[in-house]
Amino acid sequence: MKKEYQVTESELFDFFNGKLSVEEEKEILEWKEACDENRELFDVMRKENLILKEVVRVQLIKGDYSSIQGRIIPRRHRAFKLKYWGVAAAIVVGVIFSVSLWQYSSMDNNKEISHVGAPARAAILELSGGERHYLGGSEIEFKEQDGMQLAVSEGKVVYDKKTGEDVEKEEEVLVFNKITVPRGAGLYRILLSDGSVIWLNSDSRLEYPEKFALEERRVRISGEAFFDVARDTMRPFVVETALQSVSVLGTKFNVSAYPSEPVLTTLASGKVKVMSVSEMDSVVLLPGEQSVLSVNADNLSVRQVKISDVVSWKDGIINIENMSLREILKVVSRAYDVDFNTELLPADDIILRGSISSDESLGVFLAVLSKVADVKFKMKTDGKIEVQKIN
């Protein structure tokens, strides 16, 4: 009796990328010719591999490394589904789905979801007087005129008209304007009048003074921002969040301060001092270090991180580094302005890591998650996307 070979999906990708030995390639070809179903599966995997090379790179790894086994595909029987079986799967997936491949996935109501692209909403500038402006483009530049910071977006200058009485009052206290980047709006690059640059992520808010004080440069943020601070030894740059403050002279760092989440401060270069709002706890960070302030602001710790993973969002890459599925869905909610219902997910969440371009559609992102996390997505009548484990 002829031996019934078995092949893993990872072996097929290795075959297409020339990573197998001559003997292994021979076995793959024998399996391919064994039946029509094997040939069909071979062609599907080959097309997925080509799409990967031409469109975008996706690498998602299921996070249980106790057993490294690929999903088994009998060589004479088609058993191919777009998911992994159990915690044993821990292979690299590089798949971008075309419309036809998207329909081949296990997702429900995919027609409603897959056509949702990366939204393009505008940031909002709210002046201290209450006037609101919608800012086009993705770059905002601040110029100083008579001590006031003016916002320039797509060549348009926005400023607050004030009476002499207003100006006189503001000499006593700093007055802050506000820039809000809503969910699904992508990221904005902000050039301050002192030469500092700020990248503001989706679902984030920056508050800045109409003019910097003589002794310091102070801004406030909620959400996530990357700072490239122009050096000024006479005026430190201070970033406030609801739970902490970061003080620098000139450096590059990232702050993630979303509501109900730990505050993460990551240093790319230079040196920063992080202090909790109670001023009871503080740390000085070195490049490559990340401080973690608990949600209750009662614990401040430091850990080593890979800087490129933390700040990839400002280059248009959604990075997933050892995140649970629920954490990933929070990121997706901010990037695409959608809401998920996760009540049907089990308590024991899986851990994933990888990256995908933020230019990709919601359908592509969810298709990959469906494949590697054994879940399906369904659009409900309330507008939320229900997430359910596939048994």
From TrEMBL:
This is DUF4974 domain-containing protein. GO terms for molecular function: sigma factor antagonist activity. InterPro entries: FecR (IPR006860), FecR_C (IPR032508), Ferrdict_sens_TM (IPR012373). The chain crosses the membrane at residues 84-104. Pfam families: FecR, FecR_C. Keywords: Membrane, Transmembrane, Transmembrane helix. It comes from Butyricimonas faecihominis. Residues 318-382 form the Protein FecR C-terminal domain. Residues 189-273 form the FecR protein domain. Gene3D superfamilies: 2.60.120.1440, 3.55.50.30.
